[in-house]
Model the fold of this input.
Amino acid sequence: MRVEQLGEGDPEIGVLAAVHGDEPCGVRAVETVFSGEPELQRPVKVVVANERALARGVRYTEEDLNRVFPGDPDADSYERRLAHRISQELRGLTTFSMHSTQSYGRPFAVVGSADALAEAVCPYLSIDAVVEATEFSEGRLVEYADVIEVECGLQGTARAGENAVALLEEFLSAVGALPSDRGDPEEVPVFRLSRMVTKRPADEYAVFAANFERVSAGEPFAAVDGEKLIADEPFYPVLMSPYGYENEFGYAGELTGKLGGSPVNEPSSNRSYSG
Ligand SMILES: [Zn+2]
Done:
């Protein structure tokens, strides 16, 4: 783990990169944005988290770091000890954590809940959606810190790195750390994860549904070894991809509202998926 303090005074803002070692976009953003020594109006703590996994180009070395928060200083696993150190470093800070994904090409945010922090920051980010992890936040940093996580684009692409640079600058402007104008707030839809969409062991997986686009009842949304999975009820796919996770395609979500505007009312029949 690498920790750097930038600007004058005790940081209230945290920037976190490389929680997953095979998602280098955050490191690129940190290097690009801070190498120019920008004039910071609020001090910032920069944490490059899993340097060991980053060096090997793997998601993690022993356990998925973003499933073992708040961590344990005496744990056997490297990531569990690391999670504890990161939790200590970020205590009390408003934090921005950058990831990339296999599920969706454009940026979106992941938060524990669409609270005041999300409301203050997310409408100023170039994102398609805000995802509330809510019941699925166990072991994730969003459960234990004041953090906005962003998925910056497809893992390993140059675009994810470019997006990460832009998003980090937008975040720093939104919280008043960079002097640049934060622009006008944009309306952004909020999706809440309602259930995990599991996949049985197989050789081949496919996902037909597009993330954040409503799947209707009766619509085939994925396939396992060529066998189609049909939606029992309407839902919104979130973080869904054929091979992004070991045991699940991703999540079924519901559209619960928006930030930067007034609430959306969804018909209750759209609120859950039980396939
Ligand atoms: Zn990640």
